[in-house]
Amino acid sequence: MFTGIIEETGSVASMVRGGDYARITVAASKIFEDLKLGDSVAVNGVCLTIAELGVRKFTSDVMSETLQRSNLGDLRTTDKVNLERAMPADGRFGGHIVSGHIDGTGRIIKTERDHIAEWITISTPPEVMKYIVEKGSIAIDGISLTVARIGESNFSVSVIPHTAKETTLLGKKIGDSVNLENDIVGKYIERFFTMKKPDPKSESKLTLGFLERAGY
Q1: Residue 153 DSSP one-character state
Q2: Angstrom distance (rounded) from CA 32 to CA 146
Q3: I need a surface site. Which of 41, 42, 114, 167 has the fewest CB within 10 A?
């Protein structure tokens, strides 16, 4: 699990495509303090497993599903990426619950300066947009942000100077793709209310009464 608080930005050292999968190598500095093989790192919000570990570099495999749902397949050598290690059990929860499982991508359609902040508006597909609520949380390229405005097919966030400095977001241009992960709570609530209810006739006969009669 992640929190959406970016620890540092790294750069793509190599991106090797192999049909419907890829291997990405990322160079960085801060996150190697306690990193080891098999650990999880969110790269632009995508949870990846470290398959190889070098000197201030790590390599991960990227499967077809991830390439289809995220913008990792668009990355090129030297591109900057947001990085966050998995949250430790005793860590501080500074953002919101981020699983590292991308719901889809959006595209930046507008940027607007507002004093010290920068407004960014992102066009969003319906299957992702339906979970976005004003003042709710969303992860954009792994960054935990608050939704400030919503439209029919887009939403906007206001990026403060600290976030602008510590992430890649303001380096994006109009038309660029960003990874989106909705707040997981809304998805679970929808699943609970839409899942098919079990047939009462097929319910288990193992009840407290049955156990008592059986001597338990």
Answers
A1: S
A2: 29
A3: 114
* Helices and strands counted in the chain (H then E): 5, 13
| Span 93-124, pLDDT tens digits | 888 999 999 999 999 999 999 989 999 999 99
DSSP 100: S
Architecture per CATH, domain 104-194, reads as Beta Barrel (2.40)
46, 75 contact by CB (below 8 A): no
The answer to whether the predicted template modeling score (pTM) of the entire model surpasses 0.90 is no
As a whole number of angstroms, the distance between CA 116 and CA 186 comes to 32
Instruction: Report residue 211's pLDDT band, with 50, 70 and 90 as the boundaries.
Output: low
- Please, what is the average pLDDT of the chain? 92
The reply to whether domains 8-85 and 104-194 share a CATH topology is yes
The SS3 assignment for 66 reads: helix
DSSP code of 3?
Answer: -
Beta bridge partners of 80: 11
Give the whole-angstrom CA distance, residue 13 versus residue 27.
6
Strands 137-140 and 117-123: unpaired
Task: Write down the domain spans for the chain.
Answer: 8-85, 104-194
Tens-place pLDDT, residues 49-85: 999 999 999 999 999 999 999 999 999 999 999 999 9
Structure confidence at residue 186 as a pLDDT band (50, 70, 90)? confident
- What CATH number does the domain located at 8-85 have? 2.40.30.20
Percent helix, percent strand, percent coil in the chain, to nearest 5: 20, 40, 40
